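for the recovery benchmark. tokens below, seq after
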């Protein structure tokens, strides 16, 4: 009789363990509302993503390829506005795709001739390519449009004027610059140390 009781207790323990394991597995596999095992879809009624702002953040992080993708998505939604032209051109400049950057930056400055950021970024391109006299002229124009309020444009103008006045210092190893975002899509050239 004692043996029968021991067998019954052992069966109860195994049954209790099986129930606990089943409950744990069931709680792990619950997927929530609708019990759909797939990732949620795109909420078309949700807030729109500002691709230009995302692209600018990626530019600050030095992720020019990803920023270019973000600006391209913005162009699909908004069209090729001067802001998007400038952004795509500056991302190409960051990737050292100078042949692709130039027409975009020039077009942005032509389409919105009163926007100092477009002129500043065109000047940054000209500095990168060693066109110091034209860069200085473009920075002067941007500085005038901005009423002298932008430190980034002023610093870029000073750098261009210094490069024009002292051509001895224009050796290739000293022409390495990096882009530093100042806000609202405006960039400052910083010499790489």
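predicted aa per position
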């Amino acid at each position: 009789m004692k043996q029968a009781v021991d067998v019954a207790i052992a069966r109860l323990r195994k049954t209790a363990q099986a129930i606990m394991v089943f409950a744990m597995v069931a709680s792990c596999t619950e997927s929530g509302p609708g019990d759909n095992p797939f990732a949620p879809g795109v909420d078309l009624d949700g807030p729109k993503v500002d691709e230009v702002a995302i692209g600018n953040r990626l530019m600050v992080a030095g992720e020019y390829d990803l920023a270019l993708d973000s600006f391209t998505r913005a162009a699909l939604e908004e069209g090729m506005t001067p802001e998007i032209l400038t952004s795509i051109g500056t991302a190409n400049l960051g990737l050292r795709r100078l042949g692709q950057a130039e027409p975009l930056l020039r077009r942005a400055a032509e389409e919105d001739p009163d926007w100092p950021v477009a002129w500043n970024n065109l000047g940054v391109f000209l500095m990168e390519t060693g066109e110091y006299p034209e860069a200085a002229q473009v920075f002067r124009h941007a500085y005038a449009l901005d009423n002298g309020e932008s430190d980034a444009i002023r610093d870029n103008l000073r750098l261009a004027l210094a490069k024009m006045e002292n051509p001895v210092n224009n050796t290739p190893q000293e022409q390495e610059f990096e882009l530093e975002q100042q806000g609202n899509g405006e960039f400052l050239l910083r010499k790489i140390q």
